[in-house]
Amino acid sequence: xxxxxxxxxxxxxxxxxxxxxxxxxxxxxxxxxxxxxxxxxxxxxxxxxxxxxxxxxxxxxxxxxxxxxxxxxxxxxxxxxxxxxxxxxxxxxxxxxxxxxxxxxxxxxxxxxxxxxxxxxxxxxxxxxxxxxxxxxxxxxxxxxxxxxxxxxxxxxxxxxxxxxxxxxxxxxxxxxxxxxxxxxxxxxxxxxxxxxxxxxxxxxxxxxxxxxxxxxxxxxxx
Length: 223
Known about the structure:
- This protein is 31% helix and 25% strand.
- By secondary structure, the chain is of the alpha/beta class.
- The chain has one domain (28-221): Vaccinia Virus protein VP39 (Rossmann fold, 3-Layer(aba) Sandwich).
- The longest helix is centred in the N-terminal third of the chain and has 21 residues, at 3-23.
- It starts with a helix and ends with a strand.
C-alpha cells in the first residue's frame, strides 16, 4: 500500500466505521445474476466490500456443473447460491448461525439448493472431499471480540490461518481446486509463510485492481 493510501485510511477509518454501522443497522438486500439475499447486520456485508463481487465474477468462468463445491465461511451465501445456479452440488459453512439461517431462507426463496453446515473451518466436514473450495478469509491481525468480528479479524497472531492451513492439506488433492482471495492491505507474505509451514503452495491465478486496491485470487496446492 502506498504511503498516501495508508495515511488516508488512518484518517478516514473512524468515519468509515460510523458510516458502515449506520448503513448496516438493518438487514440489506444484495443481488447478483437475479439471485437475491438479505444480509443481516451481524453478517459479513458484500455490498461495500470488493472481495465477494470479485469471487462471483471469477467463478462465473468455472465449469461447476455436477461438481461438489464448498464455500468455507459463507457469510451472506451469495457465492454458494450462485454456484448452485451453475448446477454445482453446494455446501456452505459458517460459525455464524445467523448467516446460516438467512442463507437457508434465501435458498428456499431463490429455489437453489445449498447444504448449510455449522462448522468452524473443517471441523464438521471430516471425511468429505470437494471439487472446488472457495475461501474469502478474515485477514486483519486483531483478536475478534464476537462472532461478527470473526468475519474480519484473523487473530493477533493469525490464528485463523494457522488453524486453516493445519486442516486444509487433508482436503486438497491433485483433482480438486482450492481458491482464496486476499487484498494487498493484508500481510500476504506472513500468510504465505504460514501456508508453507504446512507444505502448501500459493499460485496466483487472478489479479484485479479496484478503487486503488489490488486483490489477488490464489490457488492453494500441495507439492
